[in-house]
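Narrative of activities, Objective 1.

The group set out to show that a structural description can be obtained from nothing but a protein's sequence at a throughput compatible with the screening campaign. Below is one input-output pair from the validation batch, recorded exactly as produced.
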Amino acid sequence: MDLIVARLRSYRGLNLDRVFAMGYSNGSGLVQYLMGHRRHFRAGAMAASALSPNRLPRDEVRTASILQLHGTEDAVCPYEGGNSRVGHTFLHAEESGATWAQVMGCPRDAQETETSDRNRRFEWGPCREGHRVVHYGYVGAGHGLPRDQEGGMNELIVRFFEETP
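Output recorded for this entry:
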């Protein structure tokens, strides 16, 4: 990743102060790792995966906004955390959000709401530099998250990135 960003610096017209990362499932695990161990990203969106207890973010990461999307009935990356059938261990999805909130300097307690689509939404903020951590628990959804809820998954992610300070 460091080499990619270094190469991008040679191009004109790129705002490398606003680099975002998005991943789904295994790609979400990569984004979790990159957000926790590299300083390139202003925000990250992680879908269908939570933090692993053996790969927690470092305390000196760049302050960023975090969006987590997770199905409450996910059999691949269990919402409740623990061992998965793919050989990884995960934190509870909501604990994953709280961990990011702590690292990003957010208030300890999240504002919890039920969305119009009846999903769980937790928001920690404001964090350092005006950032926030938001977690959506898609009630009843498995590993394949519904793309038509919360205004559309892609739209939700893009809107989150656009609102990032």
